[in-house]
């Protein structure tokens, strides 16, 4: 009985330490950006926090990095968004940075550890949202090829993350295919990108390409899920998601070009 109490005590202590370390990581990233006025130290801290990915034999590095790419995209993307939010140097921008740091802690503690299929799809969606927002915000002076490669990586990583939960034999092929879809969308939208100013986010904007890729990915996941469960694509499984996404696309089409919509590049 005494042994059980010791084990339980250690378990509770390890959980507390785990929570504090993750909150400390998010806080350290925020302080690094605020103190230096640059994203580089925050990016370095976020990358160093992933040391366990390569804490294995070198032959397993690629597999581990590939499996953790979604987490890396979210971590680095949030660092970039914190930096972008802080460029305005106002009280409101600091509040937005704190909110983003808080979301980073929520990602580390609540969203990332879950392993059911719905949670995995949510993780991929967060990576696509954060990754594309961050990429668009910093790539306006890049070569278009670099932007396209970034979009391909986001598309490939998020697709692989979702498909891995189905144990599909065509995992690599389907992930590569969706990566190319994301890359094509990136190439089309690079030279004429529209980003909507967020009412609560000073310095942050929601790019149209993010909404397009999220919508198409959501429909594709529902189609795949229906086929995986029933051996065919059932209309009732995909009709509502399809109508929802079409509605969002129509709304984007008829959104007037005003101060909330900014043509980039």
Folded structure, characterized:
- This protein has one domain.
- 73% of the residues lie in helices and 5% in strands.
- The chain is built from ten helices and three strands, in the order H-H-H-H-H-H-H-H-E-E-H-H-E.
- The N and C termini lie far apart (67 Å).
Number of helices: 10
The shape is globular
- H/E order of the elements? HHHHHHHHEEHHE
Seen as an oligomer or otherwise, the chain set is: single chain
Task: Briefly characterize the structure.
By secondary structure, this protein is mainly alpha-helical. Helices cover 73% and strands 5% of the residues.
Give the arrangement of secondary structure elements.
Elements: H1 2-36, H2 40-48, H3 61-67, H4 69-86, H5 91-111, H6 117-138, H7 144-163, H8 171-190, E1 193-197, E2 205-207, H9 208-230, H10 235-253, E3 261-264
Antiparallel strand pairs: 1-2, 1-3
Helix pairs in contact: 1-2, 1-4, 1-5, 2-4, 4-5, 4-6, 6-7, 6-9, 7-8, 8-9, 9-10
Task: Provide keyphrases for this structure.
mainly alpha, three-stranded antiparallel β-sheet, 10 helices
């Amino acid at each position: 009985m005494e042994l059980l109490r010791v084990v339980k005590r250690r378990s509770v202590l390890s959980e507390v330490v785990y929570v504090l370390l993750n909150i400390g990581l998010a806080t350290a990233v925020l302080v690094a950006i605020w103190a230096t006025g640059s994203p580089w130290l925050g990016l370095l801290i976020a990358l160093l926090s992933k040391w366990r990915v390569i804490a294995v034999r070198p032959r397993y590095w690629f597999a581990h990095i590939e499996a953790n790419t979604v987490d890396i995209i979210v971590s680095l993307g949030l660092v970039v968004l914190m930096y972008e939010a802080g460029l305005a140097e106002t009280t409101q921008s600091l509040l937005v940075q704190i909110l983003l740091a808080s979301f980073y802690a929520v990602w580390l503690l609540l969203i990332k550890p879950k392993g059911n299929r719905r949670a995995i799809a949510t993780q991929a969606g967060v990576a696509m949202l954060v990754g594309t927002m961050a990429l668009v915000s910093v790539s306006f002076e890049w070569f278009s090829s670099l932007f396209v490669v970034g979009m391909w990586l986001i598309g490939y990583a998020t697709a692989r993350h979702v498909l891995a939960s189905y144990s599909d034999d065509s995992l690599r092929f389907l992930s590569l295919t969706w990566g190319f879809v994301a890359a094509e969308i990136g190439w089309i939208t690079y030279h004429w990108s529209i980003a909507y100013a967020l009412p609560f986010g000073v310095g942050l904007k929601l790019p149209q390409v993010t909404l397009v890729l999220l919508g198409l990915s959501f429909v594709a996941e529902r189609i795949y899920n229906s086929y995986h469960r029933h051996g065919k694509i059932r209309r009732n499984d995909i009709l509502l998601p399809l109508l929802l996404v079409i509605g969002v696309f129509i709304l984007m089409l008829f959104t007037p070009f005003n101060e909330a919509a900014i043509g980039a590049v």
